[in-house]
Amino acid sequence: MQLIAKTLYGLEKVLSDELSGLGAKNIMAVNRAVLFEGDQHLLYKANYSLRTAMSVLVRIAEFRIRTSHDLHRYSQKIDWKEYLDPEHTFSIVSVVNSPFFSHTGYAGLLLKDAIADWFRDKTGKRPSVDTNDPDIVFNLHISNDLVTVSLDSSVVPLYKRGYRKEQGSAPINEILAAGIILITGWKAETSFLDPMCGSGTIPIEAAMISSDIPAGRFRHFYGFQRWRDYNEELFLQVRQESECKAHKPLIRINASDISESAVSITRANVESAGLNDIISISKTDFCDAIASDNEGVIIMNPPYGQRIRNDNNDNLYSMIGATLKHKFPGYQAWLITSDKDSLKQVGLKPAKKAALFNGSLECVLVKYELYKGSKKIK
Question: pLDDT digits over 316-371, tens only?
């Protein structure tokens, strides 16, 4: 099968590495996605295990067009009965960047009509469109003149892990949180701290990574479970293979926040994920935080930009820099923000920078290496 794993900008390399670990073949990273090949077993495993994929698509057709009418004409050459019956419902998700279409909705309408017309001509019946709870979801991607039609095997985005019971005013996306942790290279052999934990997404994802808990443990539905060729026995096998690797890590994850509300929300989500014995939670102002070890990793997602408006951001970022420098020698600190002006107030020299997106906000992930003793602080 020709497969496509969609992801967030900046996480293509991380997702490629994940897929390689799962045994995927012919892996190729593209913008916000990774192309790869695999069988039904890998399709199920990718959905259940990948931490940085938004969804997994199965490519069923690809062709080039010269006019908008070509979309309908070439789409009618697809054997739609392999994926759909007239009694089933379907919907179409379109992503279009092409001079042949003035808006995405029109391209989706042409594909819908092509599917309906194909079935009417072959069977005399037309499947219905259901945008709320369809049996099958088709993905239509058009880039200039290249059209790709795929089956969405996930349907519900994979960042919806299923453990979140409560959320704060601006929770970080689970995929972005996992991606940042994997970018740091943290191996669960040193301390881990999120001192601005919000709703607890970063520490929960860190706990799941350190425990080898599959990302899909708490989900109850995948799109492929409604497909005609769904193999329940194979999916149970995939789940068992993934779950048998789970274990309790030797280290403990530390989460804290200055907000009592954030701490309460984090506690609820950590309990929902069954990770109380791995994650320690406290109400603490970061300026009062104390290092629990001689080395470790800190990941923080402080207020910035449209995410949470804060008139004192310059002071906040200055405090972050001072606290890191004086209280966490030996640690690596990673900070994600879209507030590049306030970031200058940290006062430490970045060892690494990476561009990422948090929703629609363009962000930078910055790494600071905090040296011990007489070595120069960067």
Answer: 999 999 999 999 999 999 999 999 899 999 999 999 999 999 888 899 999 999 98
In a domain, 161, yes or no: no
pLDDT in tens, 200-240: 999 999 999 999 999 999 999 999 999 999 999 999 999 99
Can you point out the beta strands (E) in the chain? 2-6, 25-30, 33-37, 55-64, 89-97, 128-129, 136-143, 146-152, 191-194, 253-257, 279-283, 296-300, 331-337, 352-358, 361-369
Q: Distances in Å between the alpha carbon of 171 and those of 159, 177, 203, 244, 301?
A: 12, 10, 12, 30, 10
Domain total in the chain: 2
Do strands 33-37 and 2-6 pair parallel, antiparallel, or not at all (unpaired)? antiparallel
For residue 5, which of 186, 63, 14 has the smallest C-alpha distance?
A: 14
Q: Is 321 inside any structural domain?
A: yes
Q: Are 343 and 366 in contact (CB under 8 A)?
A: yes
Residues 343 and 202 in one domain: yes
Return the residue matching tokens 């379109």.
Answer: 94
Which residue segment(s) compose the domain that 146 sits in?
2-152
Task: Tell whether 228 is covered by a domain.
Answer: no
- 3-state DSSP call for residue 310? coil
